[in-house]
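Hey,
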Amino acid sequence: MIHWIERIINLILPPRCLLCGKVVNGDNGLCNDCFNNITFITKPYCVKCGYPFYKSIDSDGICLSCLNPKNKQIFRMCRSAIVYDEYSKKLILDFKFSDHVENKVLLARWLNMAGKDIFDEGIDIIIPVPLHFTRMIKRKYNQSAILAKELSKLCKIDVDYNLLKRSKMTAPQTQCTGKERQKNVKNAFVVSDIEKIKGKRIVLIDDVYTTGATLKECAKILLSAGAKSVDALTVARVCQ
């Protein structure tokens, strides 16, 4: 019965591409033209940070940045589904700022595929990067929490929305340079229940990985609270 209702609805209001608005078949979310413009991050990439290799790689598949002893490794692994560019930008910004929460299904599906390496290593809890309550009031929802909820349905791992909280109102990261981003989010997060963190393998969820400053600060707090490991999983990543 539900199947027939869905078919009738699709006849009256056919699904449309999330980017260009063309009528599409099924629940793919994007038309062929828009889908082909999306750059997916696939192997080869650094086995640690997930950054795609555009040049030669070392035999272990680890990028030079991760091999540098000066760069302390916070995450067990980082992974992102797509490159953040002129084509993917609208899909993410519409979801984040323009109430296009319908984009969550497609974005979570991509997260699930990109997170295979992480899930294979084992995860106990999914935690979305939190928003300060004042920004939640203005934006009405936390896009990372919505992504985490949809991802949980696919990978069957529980989400906790309250273990990590943003305790300090900070300027939007988009208004900061690379070094300013680290300073901007320093000491901006707290763990609400240390006992629930101890010994857990955690994956942090966010929409875009730019410099990683926010995710790294979250990971530091979780590790200091006793987490066994912290991974980062985002829909998109800035690749320069």
